[in-house]
Amino acid sequence: MEILDGKKAALFYKNKIAAEVIKMKEKGMKAPHLAAILIGNNGASETYVAAKVKACEEVGFHSSLIRFQDTVTEKELLDKIHEINNNEDIDGYIVQLPLPNHIAENKVINAINPKKDVDGFHPENTGRMVKNLPCYIAATPFGILKLMQYYNLESTGKHCVVLGRSNIVGSPISILMARDGNPGNCTVTLCHSKTQNLKEITLQADILIVALGKPEFITGNMVKEGVVVIDVGLTRVVNESKKSGFELKGDVLFEEVSSKCSFITPVPGGVGPMTIVALLENTLKAARKEIY
Could you tell me the pTM of the whole model? Predict the structure, then answer.
């Protein structure tokens, strides 16, 4: 069993991005600029955004953090998005999800300029991904692909089972793993909460990608020997023995499943660091006008 170390892979890719930024500056170009809009005081969102800002510093990007209270109106948020769309200094930006209940998520995502949509959530980028056209791929699926590339994982002809059908992870990664590419060329089964005989399906998986948000849902008797497991889950579970009062759990019961795997991601330290790398790479592409 080998650990798919997202921190190690992320460092490799960040060093490459930092070298590209140096080349851009030597040519008289400005450094890429990534902005993030953060609403309210969600602990997980604060952590994610802080990690993104730190990563920007590490590779030589400019970064901006725009904060709103969770009482911000939908109009105020949309006005700020319109302002950023027209700010030529900002190459790409994200609106950190989840949003407060009084703000329509789809309306916000649709308002983002597709050319600056480095999270890859806008319908135009989703549509371009489905048609295998140049696009910004959603950061977590893109990060999974880059992690697989780093470890040279063979996917052609494999049966890839994806658990979870969210627009952010499950649905896009199922499309990406099926299409002609590397990684890709898999036979893909997409499972979800209504799937019957789930264990029968997961036992067939050569590659199992789990993005359910259900801590330790996948147990040892649900996977076959030699499987590659990519655990996207990250849930805070109460643990009074920890200083923070909680611990982070993935969707896979690591202690049981890892002994049967050829490769497996840890939680944390697997997919998470690669999601940030993917965001940086999308921003680099945006600064270079590679997609649009």
Answer: 0.95
